[in-house]
Design goal:
35% helix; six-stranded antiparallel beta sheet; 4 domains
Length: 440
């Protein structure tokens, strides 16, 4: 009970967190972990294998198992020495033990030694050709080397690098081409990062209650942390519910948390788009959402986290958006006795070459309305399989669209939604949406 790293944690999870806390480059072994954490060697071995699968450690022949930098811990522009070698198709000649490190900066060896000293720092990566003087200078500073144009590296340089545990990477491309390849890799990574995912902003140190807790434990946790909403986890760290101040109000202190918690909890995975989750929070009225991976809790996101993220991204012009989210960003949800109602203005972004709302825009609006109706009416997650659209009258820029959606047929694996779009009480488009149920 408490922060994930405190109580109610299995030995396996404890070892994983111990490994996460190690510095990059630290060596570990089954025997060492078994001794330090007082667990069996079998448990330690299985946890290390799990850590390797998660990208936390790497087993290197003749070196051992070492802590490496995982993908989640790196910034968008960070490239490890291992990735650099892979991108430029290079061969690592020395010191494979620290390939998980990210260079402090990248330097091209086109300067005199006096000027180069100003740019080189410890863990820099120098791209250099047949210039032994610059190679020696880099090693003295503690920088790694990429020797380009398939040039032979002097034995003296190799020995010095090995002694100082610095990497020397041999590359068949010339310096310009090698650096260009790296630039393209960083650019591609930035493009991937234009869309913001829940995993980018989630809080990983989570306060939670175990399933065997009682209401009194909620009061103690609330007093200790100042929070009022906590996920409830079973012994395998899987989310079984959510408990809030409303749930425990008036309940006996000794009552089981399982008897008062809310079992129908919205959960999403780290790769869920932040903009999608923000709209779902509005539709559902949730304040806190557990983030799960393989059904296990890995973090939480609150309304405040999302608002803070949006405020930050407004200052970053490189942050992109999906077409669906751009279309739906101006629509507001209101209740309708038969289902749900969305209201929004048709903008210039949504029109086609004829000056009217494009069919693609209407399909996006209708699909979203059907999805929300399934969530609001029956707490279902759905995927559209078929959509039949009757476009009765065109929409012009500035028209206010009123979208009415309701689930008209429900079976075990699919549902049908009836969606109508009106403007000033005049029917503009009508659709029947068939959707597959993916989660209840």
């Amino acid at each position: 009970m408490g922060v994930i790293a405190e109580q109610g944690v299995t030995k396996h999870e404890l070892i994983i967190r111990y490994i996460k806390a190690l510095e990059v480059g630290a060596k570990i072994s089954v025997r060492q972990i078994a001794k330090e954490l007082d667990v069996s060697e079998g448990t330690a071995y299985r946890a290390i294998k799990e850590a390797e699968a998660q990208g936390l450690v790497s087993s290197i022949p003749k070196v051992g198992t070492i802590r490496i930098e995982s993908e989640e811990e790196k910034g968008i522009e960070d490239l490890t020495l291992r990735e650099v070698a892979k991108i430029i198709e290079g061969e690592v000649l020395t010191s494979r033990g620290n390939l998980g490190l990210s260079p402090a900066n990248f330097v091209i060896g086109s300067y005199s030694p006096e000027i180069l000293k100003k740019f080189l720092v410890k863990n820099s990566l120098l791209f250099v050709g047949n210039q032994p003087e610059l190679q020696k200078l880099a090693l003295e500073v503690g920088a790694h080397l990429v020797v380009t144009a398939a040039l032979k590296v002097p034995i003296e340089i190799m020995r010095k690098a090995q002694k100082k545990k610095l990497n020397v990477i041999s590359c068949s491309y010339d310096t310009f081409e090698a650096v260009s390849m790296l630039n393209r890799a960083v650019y591609d990574r930035l493009k991937e990062k234009e869309l913001i995912y829940v995993g980018d902003i989630m809080v990983r140190d989570v306060f939670y209650l175990p399933s065997e807790a009682v209401v009194d434990d909620w009061h103690k946790m609330a007093e200790k942390t100042g929070h009022s909403r906590f996920p409830v986890l079973d012994k395998n760290m899987m989310v079984v519910g959510m408990v809030t101040a409303v749930d425990v109000a008036g309940a006996e202190r000794e009552a089981s948390i399982l008897s008062v918690m809310t079992k129908d909890v919205l959960m999403v995975e780290p790769r869920t788009l932040l903009t999608h989750l923000s709209r779902v929070l509005v539709w559902e009225g949730f304040e806190l959402v557990p983030i799960v991976k393989g059904k296990k809790l890995v973090g939480v996101v609150s309304r405040q986290d999302i608002l803070a993220a949006f405020q930050q991204t407004q200052k970053q012009p490189h942050v992109g958006e999906t077409v669906d989210n751009l279309v739906m960003s101006g629509f507001k949800l209101t209740d309708w006795k038969e289902g749900i109602k969305l209201t929004g203005e048709i903008s210039e972004f949504m029109i086609d070459e004829d000056g009217t709302a494009s069919p693609g825009t209407l399909v996006t609006i209708i699909s979203t309305a059907a999805y929300i109706a399934a969530r609001k009416q029956y707490r279902l997650d759905t995927l559209v399989q078929n959509l039949s659209l009757q476009h009765v009258h065109p929409f012009a820029v500035g028209d206010v669209a009123e979208v009415y959606a309701q689930i008209v047929h429900l079976e075990k694996k699919f549902c049908l939604a009836d969606v109508g779009i009106y403007c000033q009480e005049k029917l503009k488009a009508k659709a029947l949406v068939s959707a597959r149920i993916v989660k209840k």
